[in-house]
């Protein structure tokens, strides 16, 4: 007897499990999210663990890493380790929720464009091309400057300007899948358009969409860090990786730890997502694409 056919998602999972770098990156991402969630709960409950991230002590300012302050202190004597831990959920929340917003918009727009085609596709794609002509970061920077720096505004703005790549990917998938036999059979049976799109086509386009989402998270994290560094992100005293670097740039020669440790956190988080996304991309490729 022939073994039962695997679903597209099961094949992707099976291939991904054979990628050691992908598994290590995924484990790092899971640990990162767990740490962020724990310290988000502690922050909301006003529990200062391991220390109060906003407690100042000018007598201990700019101390290098030591047994009490594992990553040193900043110019106000605040514990850098506590600030980085409590600020981790800001970066991850912005990355995850902003990508969810952009994914929702991109999937809807791309599905409509790819399924209906013709003049609908032409109008939507010309609008997408026009939006892609604008420099994304400067568009985000302008919008945040006008709306005001807050985590909600940053999430909304990043989500509203970063959906175009997802829309083009979903459109390409739908242009291919709408001509398959099972879609034609669904039309012949009289199924409605929403049912065909969401029940038959979208599940088969899930793998590349999910890969795009994973690869979009580090881009959102880096964007948030850049905005915070420029003073347009979440405002002090709330700690984020970006504004910790911004505060420490004045003391670059005297307190290297204020730049190195948050910079490493941003780098390692982004690297883990990129490696996991690349492993997922390789797992989602068909055999013909690999050749």
Helices and strands, with pairings:
Blueprint: H1 8-17, H2 20-44, H3 80-116, H4 118-132, H5 136-147, H6 151-161, H7 164-177, H8 181-188, H9 193-201, H10 206-230, H11 241-248, H12 257-284, H13 287-290
Helix pairs in contact: 1-12, 2-3, 2-12, 3-4, 3-6, 3-7, 3-10, 5-6, 8-9, 10-11, 10-12, 11-12
Could you characterize what this model shows?
Helix content is 71%, strand content 0%. It has 291 residues and is mainly α. It has a single domain, classed as MetI-like (MetI-like fold). The protein is elongated.
Summarize the structure.
The protein is 71% helix and 0% strand. It is an all-alpha fold. The protein has a single domain (27-45, 78-290), classed as Orthogonal Bundle (MetI-like fold).
Order of H and E elements: HHHHHHHHHHHHH
Distance between the termini: 29 Å
Q: State mean pLDDT (0 to 100 scale).
A: 84
- What CATH architecture do you see? Orthogonal Bundle
Detail the poorly predicted runs.
287-291
Q: What's the overall geometry?
A: elongated
Helix/strand structural class = mainly alpha
Beta-strand segment tally? 0
Radius of gyration: 23 Å
């Amino acid at each position: 007897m022939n073994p039962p056919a695997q679903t597209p998602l099961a094949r992707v999972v099976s291939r991904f499990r054979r990628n050691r770098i992908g598994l290590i990156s995924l484990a790092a991402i899971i640990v990162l999210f767990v740490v962020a969630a724990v310290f988000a709960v502690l922050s909301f409950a006003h529990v200062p663990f391991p220390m109060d991230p906003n407690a100042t002590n000018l007598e201990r300012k700019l101390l290098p890493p030591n047994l009490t302050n594992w990553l040193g202190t900043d110019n106000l004597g605040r514990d850098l380790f506590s600030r980085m831990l409590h600020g981790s959920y800001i970066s991850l929340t912005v990355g995850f929720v902003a990508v969810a917003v952009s994914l929702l918009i991109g999937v809807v727009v791309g599905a409509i464009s790819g399924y209906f085609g013709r003049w609908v596709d032409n109008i939507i794609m010309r609008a997408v091309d026009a939006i892609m002509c604008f420099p994304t970061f400067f568009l985000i920077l302008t919008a945040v400057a006008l709306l005001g720096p807050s985590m909600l505004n940053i999430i909304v703005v990043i989500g509203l300007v970063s959906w175009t790549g997802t829309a083009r990917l979903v459109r390409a998938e739908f242009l291919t899948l709408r001509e398959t036999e099972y879609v034609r059979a669904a039309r012949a049976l009289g199924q409605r358009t929403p049912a065909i799109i969401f029940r038959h086509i979208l599940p088969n386009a899930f793998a590349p969409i999910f890969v795009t989402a994973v690869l979009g998270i580090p881009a959102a994290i880096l964007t948030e860090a850049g905005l915070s560094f420029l003073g347009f992100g979440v405002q002090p005293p709330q700690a984020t990786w970006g504004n910790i670097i911004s505060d420490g740039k004045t003391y670059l020669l005297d307190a290297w730890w204020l730049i190195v440790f948050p910079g490493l956190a941003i780098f390692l988080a982004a690297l883990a997502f990129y490696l996991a996304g690349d492993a997922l991309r390789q797992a989602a490729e068909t055999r013909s694409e690999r050749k």
